[in-house]
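From the pipeline queue, job 12 of 40. The input is one protein chain; the requested action is below.

Action: predict structure.
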Amino acid sequence: MNDSRELRVGEAASTTSQLTVREVVIDLMRRHGMTKVFANPGSTELPLFRDFPPDFEYVLGLQEAVVVGMADGYAQATGNAAFINLHSAAGVGNAMGNIFTAFKNQTPLIVTAGQQARSILPFDPFLASVRATELPQPYVKLSLEPARAEDVPLALARAYHVAMQEPKGPVFVSIPVDDWDRPAQPVPPRQVSTRVQPDAQALDQLGAALDASERPVFVVGSSIDRAGAFDAVVALAERHNARVFTAPMCARCAFPEDHRLFAGFLPPMREKIVGLLSGHDLILVIGAPAFTYHVEGAGPHVPEGAALFQLIEDPGVAAWTPVGASVVGNVRLGVEALLTRAAPRLRALPMLRAVPPVATPGEGDAPMSTAFALQTLASLRNAEDIVVEEAPSARSVMQQYLPFTQAGTFFTMNSGGLGYSMPAAVGVAMASPGRRVIGLIGDGSAMYSIQALWSAAQLRLPITFVILNNRRYAALQDFAPSFGFGPQDPVQGTDLPDLDFVHLAAGMGVRGERVTQALALRDVLSQAIASGETRLVEIEVA
């Protein structure tokens, strides 16, 4: 749109000349700070990008799962919705795994996809998306295909506000290819609030119960970091001398893991959760489900005699919480309201968390332990460096040997779907200029979205991809006994021999190095992280 009708930054759209859908949408995107378009091109999307504005950036992903993963990381790190353009039904299908992850991550995404021209849709044309709005459901908050071309800008405006309203999440708009050059009216600027204050009476009841409790414990989750409530939650825990556990499957850093009150991580297993929370008379779950389970369990959901309270922005999650009282509303506003209450009586400090033993490099030519690899990484990482992780079998080890102490420094997927974190690291790095980003990825996970390396290299981002290569889907092998497998029983489809990540990286323009000896790891990692370039370090672990 380099002609005289181009809408400049901050300008209201003019009604003196006929504007097109494309021009009005570009102005709308600019107004909402969505000047990066994460995409993979197709014929049904091309008209959007004719005369592409110079203040916009097209971020190319070589596969649609990578496109959505990059956009998710960018949106999480900026806090604003990211704009995605996919190629008809095939592109949405390729992206669906990471759309599901975005839904579970509560990431605001505007997912658009091309549709065939309206005039030939009755004839089942090539590339037509039949029942396009149904394809991404139920993992979008809103799914639209506007009835008329001139309705496209209003549909996208509505989609943006829905995506940004807590609980945030992805939305979908299908746009026929011939709509972009049709006439359209400007969309008036407007504001829509995105947070809801928790009910004051419900907060009073929660606060009174917390003040009266003898041995409170907090369980903290991803919404704390999303809402910017990190410091407020620390202050509330310190006020009550409450032990603090991280919720099962938490996707963000919700509390400093070196804090005196931090007690560790809850597993996604009912009986183990009850055991770890026993001895407390009040459980306050902040910004997390109560609780996320991975396997079947039996018995109570909380210890006998303990009262459960939950502060959560998602009414859907509050509705299925099995016991206790849920207060629905923005987590930061709720915690800050609790901090205005009179200081409670002083409680004794809880027991300190056990310190893990120092990991040793091992002996001989045997692969190093994951603990040693992560301990080494922790010694080189600055507290403000960002880690985007997807190494499921290493998660429990990471929780011991790679602590996170600041808000906005840890991201992972909340869905269990692989192929998210490698492209998400690209998006996080784009949103965080001047920050070092480390992608901590398992070998199996990396192969779901390895094309993200190419995008990182093309964008010249300071990301170090650390690949923990144990030559298998170790998480599945470790989990097999829970489903009746014996110690020596083979687990089909879990061995991954002969993957060479150094050569894979080289083929996408990324310099890589493999480390097989524990004593060489520190120098290789240090050089990669300090390089300011996109690098890959493949670590062979036991």
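Job complete. Residues 1-16 have pLDDT under 50 and may be disordered.
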